[in-house]
Design goal:
single chain; alpha/beta; seven-stranded mixed sheet
């Protein structure tokens, strides 16, 4: 089955994955997507990283998504509503990724993941933020992951014009991240120090 997506600029996502810099040869690489939905973003990330790494470096991609038709406020200036992230969609996505051993799925909210793994010493090389789209939530995610990155790590934000990206970018400068490239829908920041 063809894995679908609900966004745009997957070509930029692919390019940013395939050109991910490593300033030291990594012993392992970890990427993450918050908000997997039907899975095209995760598929593009995994294929891009495999193209970048080959098969010699251990690689894990983490997907985080609660699904379950949750009712929540999706954008800064919108009321709460129930999104169409059904459990059937989750089951189909899991089936689609069953032959991808590098894919690890966490069926939980971003906040639950961050709380559960707060003490873990995992380093994230690339994070695709495509879950909550409220500025306060994205800043919380970005700072959590920024504390778990190395020089060269990349953050890619989807739908960045729907929240206050200026505040997020400003917060991330304290962690050495700068904006490297932006499209109409996605923007990429990289940790330069």
């Amino acid at each position: 089955m063809t894995i679908r997506g609900d966004s745009t600029e997957y070509d930029l996502l692919k390019k940013w994955c395939e050109t991910l810099p490593f300033f030291e040869e990594p012993k392992s690489v970890t990427t993450c997507e918050i908000g997997v939905r039907e899975g095209l973003g995760s598929k593009v990330i995994m294929l891009g990283l495999r193209a970048r790494l080959g098969n010699k470096t251990p690689y894990q991609h983490i997907g985080i998504d609660p699904y379950g038709n949750l009712k929540y406020q999706h954008y800064d200036n919108s009321p709460e509503y129930t999104a169409d992230y059904t459990d059937e969609m989750r089951l189909e996505m899991q089936k689609d990724f069953s032959d991808h051993p590098e894919f690890t799925f966490f069926h939980m909210k971003d906040t639950d993941y961050m709380n559960f793994f707060a003490a873990q010493d995992k380093i994230y090389d690339l994070v695709h933020f495509d879950g909550p789209h409220m500025t306060k939530d994205v800043i919380t995610e970005a700072i959590w992951f920024a504390n778990r990155c190395r020089k060269g790590s990349r953050f890619i934000f989807d739908d960045y014009k729907k929240y206050t990206m200026e505040d997020i970018s400003k917060a991330l400068t304290h962690y050495g991240f700068n904006i490297m490239q932006a499209g109409e829908n996605k923007i990429m920041l990289q940790k330069l120090k």
